[in-house]
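Hi there, hope your week has been kind to you so far. For a while now I've been wondering how a particular protein folds. I'm sending you its amino acid sequence along with the backbone structure tokens. Could you read through the record and tell me how the tokens relate to the sequence? Take your time with it, there's no hurry, and the full record follows here.
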Amino acid sequence: MEQFVYWSWISNSMYHGAMGAMQGLTMDQIYKRIEDVLWDTQKAQWVFWIPVQLLNFRFVPVRHQLNVVLLTSVVWTALLSAWYPPTPAVEKEVKETTAETQSS
């Protein structure tokens, strides 16, 4: 339930914020990225995780459920990385900003 109501909003915002920071985006660009992709990420997360957890709780022994979640998290993170790669426009802007900063 917490994934649906509140925690996923925080974790997905943190993911996109961290990825934007590692890609060299400014705070305004990071905020814009989160604003642009958060709802789509939420919907994808619900479509992905709800069935995984239903199957996990139904068929996997309790002692192995955490392992299923951990392994599935790797898949989920890989999917996020594939769905939201740095765009060429962002890469170009980051390079230009970096060049301007270094020349100053």
Summary: The first helix runs from residue 2 to 22.
